[in-house]
Write a structure and sequence with these properties.
Layout (H helix, E strand, L loop, with lengths): L7 E6 L7 H12 L4 E4 L1 H6 L7 H7 L2 E6 L1 H11 L5 E6 L9 E2 L3 H9 L3 E15 L2 E7 L2 E5 L7 E7 L2 E8 L1 E5 L7 H4 L11 E7 L9 E4 L4 E4 L5 E5 L3 E5 L4 E16 L4 H9 L4
Parallel strand pairs: 1-2, 1-3, 3-4, 4-5, 4-17
Antiparallel strand pairs: 6-7, 6-17, 8-11, 8-15, 9-10, 9-14, 11-12, 12-13, 14-17, 15-16
The structure holds nicotinamide-adenine-dinucleotide and adenosine-5'-triphosphate.
Nicotinamide-adenine-dinucleotide binds next to α4 and α6.
Amino acid sequence: MKLTNIKRVGMLLRPSTPELKEMFFEAKRIFESRGIEVIIDNISGGMIDVMGQPFEMLCQNSDFLVTIGGDGTLISAVRRSYRYQLPVLGIHAGKLGFLADLDFAELEIFVDKMLAGEYRIDQRAVLQATITSPNGQSEIFAFNDIVLTRPSIAKMIRLETFVDGRSFNTYYGDGVVISTPTGSTAYNLSAGGPVLFPLTQVFALTPICPHSLTQRPVVLPGHFEIEMKTPDASALVIVDGQDLVEISDSDTVHIKLASGAAQLIHRKEFNYFEVLKEKLGWGN
Ligand SMILES: NC(=O)c1ccc[n+]([C@@H]2O[C@H](COP(=O)([O-])OP(=O)(O)OC[C@H]3O[C@@H](n4cnc5c(N)ncnc54)[C@H](O)[C@@H]3O)[C@@H](O)[C@H]2O)c1
Ligand SMILES: Nc1ncnc2c1ncn2[C@@H]1O[C@H](COP(=O)(O)OP(=O)(O)OP(=O)(O)O)[C@@H](O)[C@H]1O
């Protein structure tokens, strides 16, 4: 997939970091000197004294989004803009920069390459969760992961799990991580789950500290749907480590891969295994 006729880019900055003002103005200069208008969301704008637009309006008015921050800023932008199907470029101004991997110093050269068509847009799977309660249904999307865990850190949680309508397992421990291929190198990795190549159409279901000798992570095909219930108590549903929903013992959570994908802009030469090696020490 390629971007055509780029007119306007929507920028988002890491929250509570007014020091990014200088980078924003330099990025604005780079885009505007090439005929691309730069707009900013009102939260980032408020932080650096620049007039911004509400997030939804920014998405409607942009051809693609650029985040300046870390992986958290990029994850948040991808999740919140998902329904607008906008490509997102993450500029690394954070600590790890696993996903937001374009160094700011490379931006000017990269923009010229983009305008010459030398870039790629990866289609990354997204999770969709439907929470059903006696009061109705709500829909959630996640770019990295959905975690079901206990509200009290001192207690264990029991999670009854069904796969494609059939009883599959009852997890007993700290909870589970349901991860996209993109999120597999985040919480899933810490919980002992597998690294999933980011362009695969699968998801991982990984228990967190299960009190069992037999419960292991599983990788499921993208067309499977899992259903989870917490029969004894309430539970927390954590979305990309950033949003939180509390569910009760009468609620059910259905999770599957969403029908659409998120779109990440990368350098043409982007190599996943090089990033794994450089950022996470893969193979060292
Ligand atoms: N024990 C853990 O490992 C743990 C606990 C809570 C949350 N998380 C992860 O944090 C993510 C949210 O990230 P954040 O930046 O908003 O929170 P954060 O500020 O707590 O940082 C989490 C760290 O994970 C890195 N990270 C995020 N997504 C990644 C990915 N897909 N691959 C490799 N590294 C990644 C970030 O760069 C950062 O260093 C959640 O989706 C969850 O996966 C991990
Ligand atoms: N738009 C946002 N709304 C709310 N919280 C956000 C938003 N963007 C980022 N955050 C949070 O701010 C914190 C710092 O974000 P940042 O983008 O620097 O990610 P990070 O986790 O530090 O990644 P890295 O290790 O690459 O720097 C994270 O905990 C992230 O969840």
